[in-house]
Design a protein that fits this description.
Blueprint lengths: L2 H17 L13 E6 L5 E8 L2 E8 L2 E8 L7 E7 L3 E2 L3 H8 L11 E13 L2 E10 L2 E14 L6 E11 L15 E12 L1
Antiparallel strand pairs: 1-4, 1-11, 2-3, 2-11, 3-6, 4-5, 5-7, 7-8, 8-9, 9-10, 10-11
């Protein structure tokens, strides 16, 4: 349940971050700095968390938005901002999803948005970038770094960045301690997404 908060934060920042991986590829003959937006139809923010005596809980966040500014020549000048609606959490059960939105976990009425804002972007290799930034969940802001695998698709005329990332976060760091220690403190987050050039 708690997973989602973390996931979003991750997802927020992560999805967008993934797009940044494009710098690692040979740029097309366009301006060095370009702006991109996350494609909701091609984006999935998934999370999973374990609990003693219960099957693994898996879910998604359904509503989010992200913007990416990419400088292909100087990746360190790139930036990402991602925002996820915590109330859009979905675990396949209306009652359980409502529970996750409650003050026990995501507290969606008080904290409707999970936000990630990048502070740096570094090229790891030709297919991966490391995005670091600040993740804000439940009003608590913590630093987060993620390695994002990226591919650049220039087919069809309009450029697209496809990216994928996986990470784990500690929900207790954000004050989400409901159910602990029966409910794991570690939340697994998997993000797959695409961004299109504006």
């Amino acid at each position: 349940m708690t997973i989602q908060s973390d996931v979003f934060g991750r997802a927020l920042g992560l999805c967008t971050l993934l797009a940044l991986g494009a710098f690692s590829q040979t740029p097309a003959p366009v301006a060095a700095r370009t702006n991109w937006t996350i494609d909701p139809a091609r984006t999935q923010i998934a999370f999973a968390i374990d609990a003693v005596g219960y099957p693994r809980t898996e879910g998604h966040f359904r509503r989010f938005e992200g913007r990416i500014s990419v400088d292909f020549e100087r990746p360190e000048k790139s930036s990402v901002a991602f925002h996820v609606q915590s109330g859009s959490v979905d675990v396949g059960s209306a009652s359980f999803s409502d529970y996750l939105r409650s003050a026990a976990f995501l507290d969606s009425d008080r904290y409707p948005s999970i936000d990630f804002v990048s502070t740096s972007v570094q090229r790891v290799n030709d297919h991966m970038v490391r995005v670091s930034g600040d993740l804000t969940l439940l009003g608590v802001t913590k630093p987060l770094s993620i390695d994002v695998a990226v591919t650049r698709d220039a087919g069809g005329g309009r450029q697209r960045l496809d990216f994928q990332a996986e990470t784990r976060i500690d929900r207790l760091e954000f004050g989400m301690n409901s159910g602990y220690p029966l409910v794991s403190r570690e939340v697994r987050l998997v993000i797959s997404s695409a961004a299109t050039e504006l």
